[in-house]
Amino acid sequence: MTGPLPPEVSLSALGPRTRIGAGGQGTVYALAEDPRWVYKEYASRFVDDVDVTTLNRFVRLAAEAGPDADALLGLAAWPTAIVRKQGVVHGFLMPRVPDRFRVRIQLPGGPDTVLAQVQYLLNSDGYLLDRGLRIDNRMRLELLRDTAEALTLLHRLGVCVGDLSPNNLLFSLDARPRCYFIDCDAMRLDGDSVLAQVETPEWHVPDADAEELATPATDAFKFGLLAVRLFAGDQQTRDPDAARRRLHRELRALAGRSLDPAPERRPAPEQWLDALDRSIRRTPPTPPAEPVAPSTGQEPYRREPTRRNASRQNPVRRLVPGPGAAVRQPVGWGWGLAVAVMAAVMVLVGLINADDDPSGTAPSARQNLPTTRWWDVTRPSPYPGLPTTIPGLVPPTGVSGADPRYPGLSLPTYPDLGRPPLLLCPLTDVRVGRGLNPTSARTKAAVPAVDSFICSINNETSPLDDERGTQATRAATLMKHGPFDAATIIGIRTAGDGPQVNVVFEPAGDGSSSGCWRSRLTLAEDGDGLRVSALSAPARVSCP
Fold first, then answer.
1. Which residue intervals define the domain Protein kinase in the entry (predicted)?
2. Are 75 and 179 in contact (CB under 8 A)?
3. For position 515, what pLDDT does the model report?
4. What are the Cα distances from residue 305, in Å, to 242, 279, 513, 541, 543?
5. Is the pLDDT of residue 209 over 50?
6. How far from chain centre, in Å, is Cα 309?
7. N vs C: which end of the chain shows fewer Cβ within 10 Å?
8. How many CA within 13 A on the CB side of residue 240?
9. CATH no. for residue 61?
10. E strands in 433-515
11. For residues 146 and 167, what is the distance between their CA atoms, to the nearest angstrom?
12. Is residue 292 assigned to a domain?
C-alpha cells in the first residue's frame, strides 16, 4: 500500500506486517509495503467498545486541520486511517515514530535502541550517566518549552491529552530538543473519547473521583508534574521545591499553581512560554554535574535536601498533631493514669537535663524518649525507677506480668497476641503533599490509616494480618529504620484491590540524616474506616 491514505482501508490491503510492539489496548505492526505507517490493532476485548464515530473524527482532524495539519502530524502519532476487517473496525493507521525519537542507551542486558520515552529523563544524574544519556538544564528547558507549545496547539484544535505521562511522551536530543506524543487515540477530541479515559499511576489528578478527566485543566496539572519531575530527577515527587536546584523561581511558581487542587486556578501551558523563553536565554548549554556516586539503578523518588520542618528546628518538639492526624483514645481510665504518670516523669527528667546543659540548648522531647521498647528488659533504662506503689492506681482486671524496672506497674498480657498491646504511640505528623486535595473524602480517610500504621511500626508490632512471608519482611524493614515521627502522603490512587497511598516516612531524631523511606500502602475497609492491608518494598529516598 503506497500513496495517499484514504480515510478507511481494509485489513487485507495492508499487506505483510511485522509486530513491533504491544500495550494494554492492542498491538502495533510495521507495514512491509509502506514504512511510513504502522498499524495499531485493538485487542479483541476492546473492539466492541471503540467509539467509531469519534475515531472517524480523529482521522478527519488530520486531514482538515488546514495549516495545523502538518504540525499535528509532526508532533504526534495521530490516527490517519481507520482499518476494517469484514466491515468491523479493528484499528487504525498512524505515522511511524521518526528515528530522532529513538535513543541508544545502556541497559542491564547491554546497549539497545529504544523509543526515547521521557520516563528515562525523570531520574538522577547518576542514572542518566549509567544509561549513557547526556542532558543538561538547557535541554530540559527546551524540551519543556516544546511540550508547552505542542499542548497549546492541541488545545486550540480541541484536543486534550488526558493521559499525559512519561510513557506516552517521547523526546529527541537534536540541537533543539523536541517532544512527540504516542497513544493519541487515548486523547479526547471536543469532549469525546475513542475508549474510556484512563490515567497512568502516579500521574493522576488530585481527586480523580471528583474532577473530570482529559480537560485542559488536567493537562495543565500533569504538565506541572512533568516540569517538577524533569528538573528534580524524580518520578514521583509533587513538590516544586524538589526542583529548587535547577528550576528557576518563576517556573517553580508556575509549577506550584499548576499543581493546585482547584482546576480553575491552574495556568494553561501557553502561559509558561514567556517564562520558559527567559529561562532558556539565561541558561547556557552545560554538561550535567558528575554525581558523587554513580547510580546503579532507577531512583524513582529522590529529592534535593530541603529545610527540615519547624518541629525539628525547634529544640522543643511541638505536641499538637498535624491536620488530619488521628487522636488516640486512652486504654481505660486507670491505665491511662499510669501512662500519664510515666510521661510526666519523662518530661521532668528532660527539663532537669536541659537545665544542666552548659550549652543552654534543651534536648528535644524525641531525644528524651527511650531508644528501645520500654518493656525490653535486656537493656538498662535511662530513667530512675518509679515508686513501687501509686495511690489510687488499680491495675486492669486480668493483668499479669510486670516490667522488672518498674515493679509498681503491671502490664496486661494477651496469650493470643504474644506481645504487649499498643498502649502508647509517639505523636506523629501525617502530612498531605502538594498537589493532593487534603479535603477530599479519600484523603481524609487515608490520613488516620497511615497514622495507625506508623503507630504499629513505632511499637514494633506487625500492622498486617499476615505476619509471615514477604509482607512481614517489608514491615520489618520499616521497623528496623524507625521510629518515625512524621510522614508525607505524596500520592493517592484507586486500584482494583482498594485505595493505594504513596508515603514517605521520616525517621525520628538523627535518623533523618541517613534519609527517609518510601512505600506504597494498600488500604482496605476496616469497620468504619481504612487500614493498611499490604505494602510495597520500602525504598530509601531523600527526605522532603
1. 14-280
2. yes
3. 79
4. 8, 23, 10, 11, 7
5. yes
6. 21
7. N
8. 20
9. 3.30.200
10. 484-495, 498-507
11. 17
12. no
Instruction: Tell me the residue range of the domain where 159 lies.
Output: 102-281
Other CB atoms within a 10 A radius of the CB of residue 16 amount to 9
Residue 190: left (phi > 0), alpha (psi -120 to 50), or beta? Answer: left
The reply to whether 79 and 111 lie within a common domain is no
Number of domains in the chain: 4
Backbone torsions φ then ψ of 197, nearest 5 degrees: -70, 140
Cell numbers given for 480: 528496623
Q: Does position 297 have pLDDT exceeding 60, yes or no?
A: no
276 lies in the same domain as 377: no
Q: Which of the residue ranges 13-17, 185-189, 415-419 would you say has the lowest mean pLDDT? A: 415-419
Per-residue model confidence as pLDDT tens digits over 333-359: 444 444 455 555 554 544 444 444 433
Backbone angles phi, psi at 313, to 5 degrees: -75, -35
Strands 498-507 and 529-535: unpaired
Single-letter amino acid code for the residue at 351: L
Task: Name 17's bridge partners.
Answer: 31
Complete DSSP assignment for 112-140: EEEE-BGGGGSS-HHHHHHTT----HHHH
Instruction: Answer whether residue 185 is part of any domain.
Output: yes
Please provide residue 268's backbone torsions phi and psi, each rounded to the nearest 5 degrees: -70, 155
User: What SS3 state is found at 239?
Assistant: coil
Amino acid at 460: E
CA gap 216, 354 in Å, rounded: 56
User: How does strand 498-507 pair with strand 484-495?
Assistant: antiparallel
Q: Which residues contact 476 (CB under 8 A, 6 or more apart)?
A: none
Beta carbons of 235 and 491 less than 8 angstroms apart: no
Which DSSP state fits 45? H
CA distance 214 to 76: 17
DSSP 212: P
What contacts 178, CB < 8 A, 6 or more positions away? 75, 100, 101, 143, 146, 171, 172
Q: Which residues contact 108 (CB under 8 A, 6 or more apart)?
A: none
The three grid cell numbers given for residue 233, joined into one nine-digit string: 530527577
- CATH code of residue 506: 3.10.450
The cell numbers describing 348, all together, are: 521532668
pTM check: above 0.85: no
